[in-house]
Amino acid sequence: MTFKKLSISVSFAVFALYGTLILSLFYYYDGAVFLEALRSSRTLFSIRLSLFTATISTIIAVIVAIPSAYALSRFRFFGRQLIDTMLELPMIVSPVALGAVVLVFFNTPTGTFIQDHGIRFIFTVYGIFLAQFIVTVGIAIRLIKAAMDEIPVRYEEVARTLGASPARAFMTVTLPLCKRGIIASSILTWAKALGEFGATITIAGSMSMKTETIPVAIFMRLASADIEGTVVLVLMLIGIGLGILYGVRLLTGRAVPV
Amino acid sequence: MPKIEVKNITGKVLKDLSLSVGDKEILALVGPNGAGKTTLLNVMAGLTDYSGEVLFDGVNMDRVPPHRRGVGYLFQDLALFPHMNVAANIAYGLKIRRYAPAVISERVDELMDALHIAKLRDRFPYNLSGGEKQRVAIARAIAPFQKILLLDEPTANLDAQTAKYFRSELSVFLRRLEITTVFVIHDLLGAEEMADRIAIMHKGSIEQVAVPGDILFRPRTRVVSEFIGMPNILNCDECTVLSTGLVEVRSGSMRLVLPYEGTAMSKLAISPHDIYISDSKPPGPALNRYTGTITEIIPLRTVVRVKVLVDGNELLAELSRETFDEMKLTAGSNVHLIVKLRRLRYFEV
After folding, report:
1. Could you give the ipTM of this predicted complex?
2. Is residue A44 a part of any domain in this protein?
3. Among A2, A164, A217, B137, which residue has the fewest nearby CB atoms (within 10 Å)?
4. Domain of A201: which CATH number?
């Protein structure tokens, strides 16, 4: 077997693994249950809540990520390496652990003050935003930085000599040039936020019709041995996630960098 | 257009460098790789840190950011904005400086006509040839009515023939604009074609700044002399007009026939690259061909320099090591020389 054939075979094997897992869901698929679950107010609430929180937390994460990614991509400053390493935190520490860290923080005097005089995060929808933001912002910065690294600094230097301030050069040259990368990064961030479970359940809890996102709802159904209900929600999550990613791939006309 | 003064500049490779460029002057920075030519342009444009002073018309620019210096810069890699078409690239600086749309449109049209790129208006950079990109980048650099123009290797992306044509066109264009220009170039001949004065740089310092003739005929340091290839300087003892535009020059007992108007030539420089050596008599007319005796052989890394005594003049010729080895030349060998007229330079009284 040639190296080319071997590598293609391995990629198909990975595809087969995921494909088999998805197909196995249909063993417990029941059309009537699917429709019933889809129509239930609890499921619709979970879908709406997940889409809403994932969108808002992605917007906030991207707004924070763009300047951070630009600084890390363009400037050499004290603490840069430290920040860069810290961005790996959501990847090396499990979301549950991150959630636990947030819970501990809100039990410190500073955290208690924020809870009492600012926004209450524990067991509220704001907690979902916070959980999704904490888990995704590092990844968003990483992805957007990768997109910005591909844009030569020289374009900004040209813009500067033509009269553009640093901010104007960024807005008129760098940003439009890495637009595709930012869109692709945002979509992946959104997909990650949509599927976030560990930190969400730790910070916001699993209150039905209040903080029950789709992944939390899946966990709750599984915990009560409702296999059919679980399958319905998993299929929805997969459908939404893959549908959006595929749509973006068609829209941007190239592979979404991961 | 302002006068540029840089005083005691130190930074990156530059070492206590001072230089003055006159109002509307075109100055060439020439030197080997790593001499600091591009760094010096970056200092003038404010794109790199430095210590020392940069003044435009006596006004200190050290704390003025690049976007307020009024310096147009043609980078070696051109860096046309890939997401904009040709017209938008040229108009960029004008839009940033908030010129009225009518002014922008007029200026873009004027520059596109002057640089013969009007038909490229709607094309994107990926659809342009090297020469076309060069023209668009120059138009973009000049467009926002810049006071100073910096060009880093303006013909680097062009083939030799196109580069020569483009240099002469650019030279005329810059003189018409009357814009103070500093440009970096590797090739001394290219510098001579375009510049009012040439600055030879070496290891972060200026070795000599002079008009092209002086660089060639009066190299001030050994570095300059080596960089320009240690030309053979011959005294013109007599200059006789043969016909319009053609003279015979006598130097000692050596006679050369050259294209030249008048009889004011006092010195003549011949590059060692332009003296061809043959161990057998070459065919063809005897014009500008001589016989001589090798007096010294100077082997260098890839080339060999040979001193040949011809009619009382000692000429230095340079040939590749392979050619030298093939001919098995030794000191005392008799050889035939052909002087090509490619890079002859004259010095007049």
Report:
1. 0.77
2. yes
3. A2
4. 1.10.3720.10
